[in-house]
């Protein structure tokens, strides 16, 4: 039998309690136990960034954190960003720029992008590129993603 | 690629954590930010029977500044270090190096203690501690030890920290007059270095009080005394560097999948040249 | 071709517009439907114990402890599974002489590459399945491996399939003109190079995976599939697992990148399907990243020795080369592993008017993971060889590479014609593409900058490629050789009672925007707002029969079928409207969801009013009028084996001569993919393709030890392009519609990947030219560049 532990955490504003195997990582918990399949898994070793989510207001790799470590934490996933409207401007810009093809990197890209935009990132394309340099995308070649984030930063500055 | 099973413990005090580590004699492993340990567990190359989560240990947190030094708790995340109000004035070398360590989401979890305990040869933090002349504070069943960085890194993923000990903090002497240099060669932003160097000098013209630490070149971060001696008292110009470079032969360069030992040796020289040029510019 | 010429200039057309994709909304809100998202009742998980050796005899396998491990539901060795799955052989008759041995999903007596499945464990969770794999005891006798393709044909190389007597899988020779005479002519300069192309792989961000389920009551097998060709998979499962073809349903919803990786028969996926049948419950297999690196097909792995002759004025007199490629221990099923070499022989030098052409290709077996078709099959090799030699030759005779291309490119007014290798070509625009490229990149300014920078010790280089891309394949690609792979695609268009269109197609979506362009074509041709088109793809139970999306065929073939179906439905609806409105059909049109007066655009009847009449109150219609309100059409390319597209690309790079690092400063691509259905989607396909090409040229390589161990199986060790280092990519178009269809669209998905490596190679060599050195091996790693510079 797998060793388990009770946890309670707030995910996208909802309090969840669960008994989880201690070895289960947070993104597997969110996807398979909480049914929030919007976060993706691309490598399980911290490199690809597809699992990037927000824990207590910071972006983290969901594959490099145990679910038990999120006990008491506040977690926001791509679903929560959409529901609360926080990602609305990015969604619009990503759509307009076609900044996604298969969409598998998208949850992680949005998590990184929102950290950049809300963290006061500047409208500089190389700075944006450096910021998302931990998010792998095999489809787009990145330019449209960079342009979309740049659009949102620029709109924010002029709003 | 799922981690093998383990017992998970989250002690509330440092003493409790040490007790667990001693009790399980090498079967237990501390978990800090998990940014290196979790991948190793997912790959099943690490399989601790007991995982000791350090996140509740307040003794391992916080940055405190005295008149002579800065003490950084082992569980301080890169991100907290970057956000520390005095980082640019008191620890400018670390401020310059931090953006080179991985990426945001990893810096939000990875800790200074985790990096030093792991002692990856290509990691920045160990070399920074060498260059800055830091002291590492360890706690074990027999109490506290203070180990100078120069004695801490002992080989391939090998340090002075015993299996039943924890890194509690590092202590970095303040050096308001010192000058610093840093350069690393990477093919991609945020990668581990293909070779890198961190430099502290008490003065620039001429160079003196040099501490030059390399990373990503051998089995661990290291200083080369003969190189420091050769550059000391010089202007650090091209001729001085050329004259000093043969001292690098003291390093046992290691090759890996990306570069051979020979290329590493070449890169160490390039990194040094560039770091000095940036310092002196 | 049949079809109204007016389709493209109607007021309500969407074709040609940068319409955003409808499915973006779903993916941006975390509502995608990827295979691993599925959670079915009673679902269990597969993990594999894989061969740790490149070549080993299986003496015995003890699974006792694994079977007893917590959560374990079943364990299958190769021999156990072989009772339920028939083996497959990756050969096709039109690749004359190609041979391969029968392959089992799980090895039975000999393991022939590191990573080959030896045991499948099924457990309640993937973690438990992996725990049990660690308890398997396999007694394996290591055999000497044949790892290196270059020695695989030598007398003392271990022969992987003893019956064959050697490791040669296939070879082909082409000899056109008189190459030896041409090279011997007095004023001809010969350049000769040995090109090396490393193995790389697709690294789709979503790894391969499947969820299979079997219902014994109806004997139905359902495979949820992260892949490109559902109907192909349906036949394969039926034939090898023994379920009636009509009882196999293959569903592919969202696919997290594919690039050719997910179109082959993988033992682990077939085994998972067989397990579902045996256990009568859902089985999930999701490859982890290490399994992806070890078992997703690899690509390239060529050594090409090539020569080009050029006259003093710069006319290419011929190309002569030998291509050796290592494909692993089997030819992949069902598409075979000889296609890439075949493409190299077909495509090298295809943009140029060549009289003399000699090529010899050899495909050899080796104890490495299998090699097969990945994005831009054979193209990067063919383009890098021809254009690499061209720029080398230009340097040798002191001419500008653009000038040499101008002299040798096939003239835009010279089609239809054939390439030296015999490919039928039409509707190409090499000259226009090159001129446009030179214009948008401001070539002269870049050359001036290059000279200035060299004085400062900064080495920049400019490199070009003129290229062709094979798209829209006809039955001559696979079907002719006996493969159960459709070359036609179907589309169905249905008008519902509310006046909306429901369309379905046999092509599939992996992020290219397939669904979007199908919607655009249907909306534009039929005449409804695009929001009112609902698109279904990727389900053999509901879509018409067809090939799927690969070889850049989606837009050209699937799109044409959609155009024909939408047009057929429109004709039907106008017939009904003509009767209802007592109007000649020719006086009517459908625009923006209503039947209108063709002349004035005035609305006559909305589509929903028309449809409701037909569906609810058929009594109001004459009894001999029996409208269908649904139409299906299929399309295949008939007059050509392939429809070629062309392009011209350029790279601007800076080489750090002290470190060997290459920085790509900018990239330009001019692409002629015929009719552009959605310029935004095409541009992004090109950009993504270019970056994959940059990956192959600069970073990506599957590194093997001499013993056949794959050394880089993590994303930290196998490096791919990331945002910081990638350049801005400028894309421009020439539009020369293909005459083979009304739509006129050719493919565009592979051009960037096919062309970028050649442009990069040329740019790096241009940068290195002042040092009088050059590099001919990809990826062009810093260390290899330093070696070329004599620095290490
Ligand atoms: C994609 C990626 C890129 C990266 N790039 C870089 C890079 O460029 N440079 C770089 O330096 N690092 C890089 N890292 C590693 C990162 O910096 C790690 O965070 C760091 O090496 C370990 O810190 P951690 O807190 O995560 O430690 P953990 O992973 O939790 O632990 C690491 C090891 O230290 C032990 N340990 C942890 N804390 C203590 C303690 N207080 N006392 C005793 N032992 C302890 C653990 O038992 C374990 O053996 C990268 C990581 C990833 C995933
Ligand atoms: S899945 Fe977590 S970084 Fe790739
Ligand atoms: S859109 Fe496919 S990986 Fe980014």
Question: Could you give a short description of this structure?
Answer:
Helix content of chain A is 38%, strand content 17%.
Tally of separate helices of chain C:
19
Taken as a percent bin, the fraction of beta residues of chain B is: 15-25%
Shape of chain B: globular
Total beta strand runs of chain B = 14
Q: Can you tell me the residue ranges of chain C where pLDDT is under 50 for at least 5 consecutive residues?
A: 1-5
The first-to-last residue Cα distance of chain C is: 61 Å
Domain tally of chain C: 3
Strand content of chain C: 15-25%
In what order do the strands lie side by side in the largest sheet of chain B? 4-5-10-6-7
Mean of the pLDDT scores of chain B? Answer: 97
Query: Share of helix among residues of chain B?
Result: 25-40%
Unreliable stretches covering 5 or more consecutive residues of chain B: none
How large, in whole angstroms, is the Cα Rg of chain C?
Answer: 27 Å
> In terms of structural class, how would the helical and strand content of chain C be classed?
alpha+beta
The CATH homologous superfamily of the largest domain in chain C is termed Aldehyde oxidase/xanthine dehydrogenase, molybdopterin binding domain
User: What sequence of helices (H) and strands (E) makes up the elements of chain B?
Assistant: EHEHEEEHHHHHHEEHEEEEEEEHHH
Task: Report the major sheet of chain C.
Answer: 7 strands, mixed
CATH fold-level assignment of the largest domain in chain C: Aldehyde Oxidoreductase, domain 4
Number of strands of chain C: 29
**Tertiary shape of chain C:** globular
Q: Order of strands side by side in the largest beta sheet of chain C?
A: 3-5-1-12-9-10-11
